[in-house]
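testing teh design pipeline on a random one, pls ignore if ur not involved
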């Protein structure tokens, strides 16, 4: 009982710590205890340590830590990837040979598939880059239209020295602009972007399936061992939770390779499954992790009453209407948003290539009635959300644009 409880608590603590450290910054956890704990871990704890170090050692410990810490936090290093692969190799190296003699021929066929698939997908995730280069820049500019909400035309990447395509972002770890930037993944030593997003989601599926399958096998084998090793009369006398946990502790302790990895899988499966669920949600919503943070910022601006909306057709005449939005893109919208503390006033100018309004010619002019203050994010269109199946096609890398012959009719 004691050993099982200790091992479970340690693995649970590590899982919760890893989850908060890695995912606590996600916009989904804003204003939740997870975000608070993440901030405590990454901001308050280092500040506290620095204050103590300043008092006791004149800041020497933090200086030394910063040298190694900046490598860990700011460089694209393979430490987390090595940890991830080691966890897989060691876990499988312990579990599979110990379980193998007890597996049926079906499972002896299925286990190698479940084991190998994540390695293949991990390899594809690591080696497939979505970098925007001078060679593919022209193509990348055509990949997505600017939505003029989160992405506006005319912005340059100062490092790469070219115009930023819509939905791209410069990654300081990869030192490149990344197409359809989702997030820089330290587990992969690579950015998740347009070209490897499909492998990334497949990797999450394969890891979740492997863990759930592993838990099922572990549970079946340990119950089998329990039934073999504990006489029926003793089993009958095992009443309630305590008896059940006691019996399982004995089995896990007697078969630590299967038992230990079973517990590890039990604790890590929720991590993999919740991360998979989050990415399925992102596909459903037609946003990337990078964009979800931008949408959250916009939501706060809407709540503060700083966002005004009008219809494009009210502001621009037909001369501007054809080049404002990309005609072959499946989703069209008539919205123009402006983020400003004051409502746009009569006579304000809107540049046709962006949502920027020129400052009001005279501050005492009345508000322009064509602009309405936004009260809800439901009134903002996301042109990258084309419905689940088209969003999925886009992630897979299939074309989502309307064919030219339909456009001309
Ligand atoms: Zn760049
Ligand atoms: Zn990156």
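output:
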């Amino acid at each position: 009982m004691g050993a099982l409880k200790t091992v479970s608590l340690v693995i649970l603590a590590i899982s919760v710590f890893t989850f908060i450290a890695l995912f606590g910054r996600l916009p989904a956890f804003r204003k939740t205890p997870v975000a608070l704990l993440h901030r405590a871990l990454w901001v308050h704890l280092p500040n506290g340590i620095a204050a103590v170090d300043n008092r006791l050692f004149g800041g020497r410990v933090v200086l030394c830590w910063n040298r190694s810490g900046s490598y860990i936090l700011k460089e694209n290093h393979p430490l987390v990837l090595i940890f991830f692969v080691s966890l897989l190799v060691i876990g499988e190296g312990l579990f599979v040979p110990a379980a193998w003699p007890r597996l049926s021929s079906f499972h002896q066929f299925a286990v190698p598939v479940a084991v190998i698939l994540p390695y293949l997908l991990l390899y594809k995730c690591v080696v497939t880059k979505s970098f925007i280069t001078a060679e593919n820049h022209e193509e990348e500019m055509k990949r997505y239209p600017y939505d003029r909400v989160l992405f506006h035309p005319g912005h340059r990447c100062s490092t790469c020295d070219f115009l930023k395509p819509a939905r791209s972002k410069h990654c300081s770890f990869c030192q490149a602009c990344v197409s359809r930037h989702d997030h820089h993944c330290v587990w992969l030593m690579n950015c998740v972007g347009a070209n490897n997003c499909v492998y990334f989601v497949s990797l999450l599926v394969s890891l979740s399936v492997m863990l759930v399958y592993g838990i099922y096998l572990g549970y079946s084998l340990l119950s089998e061992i329990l039934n073999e090793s504990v006489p029926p009369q003793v089993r009958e006398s095992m009443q309630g939770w305590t008896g059940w946990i006691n019996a399982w502790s004995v089995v896990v302790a007697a078969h630590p390779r299967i038992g230990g990895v079973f517990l590890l899988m039990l604790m890590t499966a929720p991590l993999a499954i919740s991360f998979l669920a989050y990415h399925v949600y992102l596909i459903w919503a037609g946003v990337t992790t990078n964009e979800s943070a931008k949408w959250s910022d916009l939501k706060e601006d809407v709540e503060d009453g700083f966002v005004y909306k009008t219809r494009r057709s009210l502001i621009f005449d037909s001369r501007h209407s054809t080049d404002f939005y990309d005609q072959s893109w499946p989703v069209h919208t008539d919205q123009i948003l402006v983020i400003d503390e004051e409502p746009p006033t009569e006579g304000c100018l809107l540049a046709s290539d962006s949502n920027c309004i020129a400052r009001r010619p005279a501050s005492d002019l009345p508000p322009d009635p064509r602009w309405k203050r936004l009260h809800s994010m439901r009134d903002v269109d996301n042109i990258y959300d084309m419905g689940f199946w088209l969003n999925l096609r886009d992630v897979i890398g299939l074309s989502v644009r309307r064919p030219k012959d339909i456009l001309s009719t």
